[in-house]
Amino acid sequence: MAYAPPSGPTHRHGDSWQSSGQSRFNANGYAPAGVSEKIGDIFGSDRKGSLPMYKDKPYQYPSGRRKMPWFRRKRVIASVFLSVAGLSWWFGILSPLSFLTGGSETMVSKKSKSSWNLFGSGRVPDWDNRAEKVREAFRVSFADYEKHAWGDDEYHPVAKNGKKMVPNGLGWIIVDALDTMMLMNLTTELEHSRQWIHNNLTYDQDHDVSTFETTIRMLGGLLSAHYLSSSFPGVYAPVNDGLSDDMYVEKATDLADRLLGAFDTESGVPLASVNLHTMKGIPSHADAGASSTAEATSVQLEMKYLAKLTGETQYWDRAEHVMKVVDDNDMPDGLLPIFIYADQGAFRGNNIRLGSRGDSYYEYLIKQYLQTSQQEPVYNSMWNESMAGIKKHLITYSRPSNFTILAERPNGLDNAISPKMDHLVCFMPGTIALATTGGVSVAQARKQGTWTAEHEENIQIAEELMKTCWGMYTTTPTSLAGEITYFNMHDPPLMYEQFTSDNRPKSPRNFDRLPNLPGVDSRPIGTDDYIIKPNDAHNLQRPETVESLFYMWRITGDVKYREWGWTMFEAFMKHTAVLDGSGYSSISSVNIVPPPLKDNMESFWLAETLKYFYLLFSSNDILPLTDVVFNTEAHPFPRFQLGKLFKTGWERKARDADGKLVQDTQKHEGVPAVLDGMGPQKIETIHLTETRAVATSTLADGEMTAMTTAIGAYTAPAESTMLAP
Fold first, then answer.
1. Looking at its record, which EC class is this enzyme (predicted)?
2. What's the CA gap between 625 and 639, in Å, rounded?
């Protein structure tokens, strides 16, 4: 596991997790009553003010909540019942006339077309009110943290305490949640947070932190707060606290300068950790000192946006150089091992996956292309190559329902496939959809002259993977997904590229329950496909599935993605709420009802999960996908033009028709006369020294030969492999 500060926040790309041992059960094995009642009417109503609140009432919250005397409650119930009966009679639902007419098909037809009826069947959901429910869940969570652990970097909502990861705290939870507060118009919470940042936040602390996590959460949080406050003045939680408008950028610049120390390696690939005071990078304490590939390649959006804001090119150059080093390794089909040595710039091992330690490399390829308004096609090329590799090597199908699996190759592309999907992989459906349309709707994209059969194919893959990720939720007793899911797989595996669009395996059209079997209750679709092992059954409040639901809703316009999101939100509210209703925690098992609590609230619960729920249920006019890119911690940055200061400072090495690397045979002084005359043969090795070059080649008939030429005082790398076009 890549290095993270002791007792620090949960590493986003970690592989395994420990339960805190906290349990919700009483002596009889049941959770005490209370929490369901406290949040209960969130599930049965779209009325405002359903969630419990700490201290202050939210805006438009009902003024009084004291219980009525029992006799008044009975009168109210009776009045409601009589009203319902009267209206039912009037509309013919319970009227004796309905028996006389025999429930005519005409009447049924008219009722079925109605968008609303007395009992809610067919009623159009009030999505604004559902967004408000999410807003209240954020307020509940944040208020509990404010009361018991303000300024701490960890929070334990059951024990009601927190912990700082560095002596003075980094505001891990506060800074990560800034833009969520702004989007939700939570001015009071935002002002309190800004005061803490101004008075307490300092990065000059003698402590090691994760380079990646600090970049995506802290640097990303500060930059997105600057973006929302400066680009939308008076729109998102406007404040008048007298603090400088430049506070966010000043803090971000100081932090970035310290993080750059991690990039001081021979290859330029950043080390896993950095000391904030000394600004010295620190190798991972595990994995033979290698950095995580995803971590090294998922700091570019943040550094590039900061460079654009400040005009300081070093942020851009250092982050961008990493992409060249990675790409120069020429990994087959654009699929990268999950570890890279920072000193050498070379990969360690051959474990290929899009889950932990691999995920956001692929995410940041397409997002770098979009961030600079599609002016850096090198990243689009890399994305397309990786997408083709995913189809070729990683997509297979479950048994018996044929759900699409984005699997792993733990021992390299030429060895066995593993039908395992981390929950982290569920960022991919949304990312594929975003890459396919560029952020516009599918309907708009199809009208453009550039839409192809491949675009249509990729949208279908996104939809199928989205269904697979949603099945991780529908097949558990809690309706929440485990950290890792395995699948029953065909033997031999059915691979995506074995089929065409006409004959690929089809998954079920919906998630209706399987028919009852003799003596057996009905079971959810996918019960025989999905496998969650006991050690993988925890849920850490992760955002990846709702993130993809948000993208899929925005891009396809299919309301089912919103409905799935609402069902998921209800499950979080029901099963992750602490017993006093004052907050929410990760849980130890999605297969136990009620689930044992892990007593930890991750910062991404506030920064990502609740934000994506809120955006999913809110107007599409908020942060259009054509205007922004979200970093891997859900912090929005604007798309921008490269301008005069910035450019892509590198080019991909030439590749042949099969995508294989073709080394650049640059003509050094004294070398061309000999090498250019070697004809259409394959140059196997060229060894360069200070005085001569020795080229070993294969002639057309396969005979080996060696050629030598003087090159004067030219100094070059010791050896390189070269393939003639």
1. hydrolase
2. 10
